[in-house]
Design goal:
alpha+beta, two-stranded antiparallel sheet, 31% strand, eight-stranded mixed β-sheet, globular
Length: 179
């Protein structure tokens, strides 16, 4: 019996995540573009209308009530493994696809700048801790949220106000992303 994700290489997972994220964004009315050359720190460009966002795509895994997204890179060089994280100078956010939840998430770089991993909770913590907790529903691709000055660069993005200015699907889904 085939278990989804069990025989996929890291490259396979990355490719699937990128396709799922691009399809979800397009369904939401976001214009999606890809860089014409390899080697950028971002995989996709989201044209939200007011802004162009550099997006790094990731595969996410579910562990109980948590979606874990590894936000670091690792490459083998002659000096050994080199591990790095992303900064606001390189990307505007990380988008992740989780096959277990069948959801795509978008985390602005300001929420994870320099971190090697992020955990999104699917349910509140059993001890009721809320400080420092990132709830998955707040980061679902497609939700209405104010990005304000979260976008790096000289441009600013204002969230949808009124809510009717987003696509109908986005207005009815939970998560994070503003047009």
């Amino acid at each position: 019996m085939f278990v989804p994700g069990s025989r996929l290489t890291p490259s396979d997972k990355g490719g699937i995540a990128e396709l799922k994220i691009a399809a979800e964004a397009a369904d939401l009315g976001i214009v999606v573009a890809r860089p014409m050359v390899e080697g950028r720190r971002y995989d996709l460009i989201f044209d939200t209308g007011p802004a162009l966002l550099r997006v790094q795509c990731k595969w996410a895994s579910r562990y109980g009530d948590v979606v874990r997204i590894i936000t670091r890179t690792s490459r083998l060089t002659s000096a050994g493994h080199v591990r790095t994280t992303y900064t606001a100078d390189e990307i505007d956010g990380v988008a992740a696809y989780c096959p277990e939840t069948k959801d795509c998430y978008f985390i602005p770089i300001q929420d994870i700048d320099g971190q090697s991993m992020v955990h999104l909770r699917l349910q509140p913590a059993r001890n009721n801790q809320s400080a420092g907790v990132k709830m998955a529903v707040d980061y679902r691709l497609g939700a209405i949220a104010q990005l304000g000055e979260r976008v790096t660069g000289s441009h600013e993005v204002a969230g949808s106000s009124p809510a009717s200015s987003t696509t109908e699907r986005a207005a009815h889904q939970g998560g994070l992303f503003a047009f």
